[in-house]
Every structure is written in C-alpha cells, then in structure tokens.
Amino acid sequence: xxxxxxxxxxxxxxxxxxxxxxxxxxxxxxxxxxxxxxxxxxxxxxxxxxxxxxxxxxxxxxxxxxxxxxxxxxxxxxxxxxxxxxxxxxxxxxxxxxxxxxxxxxxxxxxxxxxxxxxxxxxxxxxxxxxxxxxxxxxxxxxxxxxxxxxxxxxxxxxxxxxxxxxxxxxxxxxxxxxxxxxxxxxxxxxxxxxxxxxxxxxxxxxxxxxxxxxxxxxxxxxxxxxxxxxxxxxxxxxxxxxxxxxxxxxxxxxxxxxxxxxxxxxxxxxxxxxxxxxxxxxxxxxxxxxxxxxxxxxxxxxxxxxxxxxxxxxxxxxxxxxxxxxxxxxxxxxxxxxxxxxxxxxxxxxxxxxxxxxxxxxxxxxxxxxxxxxxxxxxxxxxxxxxxxxxxxxxxxxxxxxxxxxxxxxxxxxxxxxxxxxxxxxxxxxxxxxxxxxxxxxxxxxxxxxxxxxxxxxxxxxxxxxx
Length: 468
Fold this sequence. Notes:
Blueprint: E1 28-34, H1 53-60, E2 63-65, E3 68-69, H2 75-84, H3 115-120, E4 125-131, E5 150-154, E6 167-170, E7 173-176, H4 190-204, E8 210-215, H5 231-234, H6 254-279, E9 285-291, H7 320-323, E10 327-330, E11 339-341, E12 345-346, H8 350-358, H9 372-376, E13 387-391, E14 398-403, E15 406-411, E16 416-421, H10 437-447
Helix pairs in contact: 4-6
C-alpha cells in the first residue's frame, strides 16, 4: 500500500529501532557529495574516458540506487532538501541565492532538526567539511549551530566557486589562507584541503561513532587542478575544448582538467577508504556517495564525456539529466556487494533513513521515507506516492512530478505540460500527453496539491539577478 494511503503528506516518521541494542552497534557514516557531477561521469554508470576506480569499487562492493533523485537541479535547494528532509515544494530554500522574490538570500528555518542534530541525539560525533552553502546570512543555519561538532569549509555559495580560496571557515572562525591567490590559482587547492581535514577528522574520532558529511566542490566550475593530476590524461590527444577565464579562473584545456578533477576526487575517496581500513573502522562504516545535481560541463549538442548517460538535460533542467543522480551505499558488514535497487528515492529520504538506522524517532514533519529496509534487505519498504520538484531560475518557474512510470514537466509561464513514460523512454525524448490525456489530468491534479505557497519563491517569472 502506498505511504500516502497510510498517513498524511507530511508524515511523522516513526522509527522502531532500539537505541540500546549493543549487539548491533551503530555504524559510522560518511556521506560524500560531489558538486555538479553527472550521472554518467563515473565508471559504474558507463563512463569510459574518466577513470574512477575507487568510486567504482564502492559500487561493485555495495548497493547502487539507480532511481535516486537529487533535491533540486542546482546546489542550494538540493542540499537544503538533503539536510532538512523536505522537498522544494515545502522547503524554505527553493532556489540559489538572489533568485528569491526579494533578491535576498534565503536560509532554511533553523528550527528544523538537521541530519546532524538527529544523529547527535544518540551521541554521534559529527563533522561537516566542504561546501555547506546554506548559511548565506551567517546566522542560525551555520553548521556549528545545526548539530555539527566540527566544520571546515564554505558557509556561503559564492566563495565555493574558487579552488584556491583566500579565506575559509573553520568552526566559527574565518581563516585567512595567506599562501592562496584565487585569481592567480596559487597556493593550496581546496580539494586537497578538504581531504586532509577529512582524514584528520577520522583520526580524531576513531574511538567514537561518527558522521562525516564531506561535500566536495569538485567538479563544479571553475575548472582548475594542479598539473601533476593531469598527467594521466595529457597524452591522450583529446580534442581541445578551450576554456575562457572570467569569474571562473578556468585552466585552458577543459576536457583534461575536468577528467583530472574527477579522478583526483576519486583518488581522495580511496585515501579515506584506506584510512578506515587502517583504523579498523572499515567494516562498520556506511559510505554514501552521490552528487548534488546534474553536470554543467559537458555540452548537450557536442557531448564528449556523455555526462548525463541515457538521460535528457543537465544542471538547471528538471529532465532526468539534471536530477537523476549516481548513488552508492557501501557497508561491508551489512550490505552484500553487487546489488542494484530500483527503489524510487530522493535526497529528502536520507534524513529519515539515517535516523532509522541510528534508532532515532523523528518528531517533525518530513517528506522523506526511510529506505533502510532496501539497504538491509529486511522489512517492508514503504514507497513514495510521488516525487516533486520546482525550479525558479532561467526559463523557470518549472515544476516536475514523478509518479510510478509517469513524469510530468510543467513550464508555468507558458502553461505548457509535457508528459513522459520514463519506464518506456528514460531519455524523455517522446512526449506523450496527447496519447494519455487521463494520465495528464491525474498528474495535474497531484501537482496542484504538491506544494505550499512561498512568498520568497512564488511560481512567477523573475529577471536574472546576476544581469542587473
């Protein structure tokens, strides 16, 4: 039976796992988030040019979710959905900074219990390293006020655009990286800084159960990486896609740089796995790997990496190329390798899942459904009645709804509806609303109830704030 028939849309997730079961110790959890990495940018999803052996190992020895969807098609609302367990029809954050109706950045309600606050209830040591991007106002939504014991990274969205930042936050202190020059791309590359801080976090917490949210900025624009990481691709004689520096201080050779950035992240994930093995924590650590939204680099009209795989679109689209994510769950002591699940899930499920895993009863409304039964192969897996997104940038507002095999995309300003059967045609190349008018009307009815009003993100078109 569908979950919607058992409870209201804003269901309170009841978790029945005991917090006192010492025979089944709670696992460590590492949640790794790439930035603008496409579904097809990793080997386990068919990538042939970019080498990702460590990520592919996690996929081979873990469980692949092949119907996992991001919270949004851009980073801010996607990450807010992950942290709060709300989709963009209910979240306070429904767009990136400056796309609100006021033109001012909107942070999530600090009264939400974040993933970190949920895990703190059962004594997890919590760390956030990398791109937080959810505290534009530097107020109550900074990581240290949202359940994280340790933070190193970017509170705001814009500073995360540069890989040689001159300032970075560590807990509540804004540190100056005197050796770094963002414009000249000199100093310490932030990918390495984040990895070193993550390794340090593992060292400090090898005696305590921990949760690490490691949100890399790779491979988001700008495209730049030290030369030594490009060597494996320099000799392949790929065609040159020349990148022009501007706000983003790109290296010249786009293809080589993009591939090298992804492979550097992959190598760093391998270092983390090796650290877990050395500490004896490998078997009882759940590692989740995913990306916040679809790719931005690969051209749709002249694809080189095939970053979106079989799917249509990219970042800023609500077609699957913008929101259908690579997703791995790896846990040697509990998850048998070589599994692929077709369970339909989304970022707003992760908080419910980790809460149930830790034995915490969630006491606030959530759009999420725990997929722990799927992970462990135990119990009855509840299913979503539908998934919902809205997007306000560019040609938006756009809404999308996925129910069973049917996907509805609504361009609000033009009142245009597109209907796709994603089971029969996952590429969303065949629009079928005229063939299936009953399905169209059914999904339009669901769409009309899927969101609550938002003064900051009404479904009205707004000018591009970056062009003012």
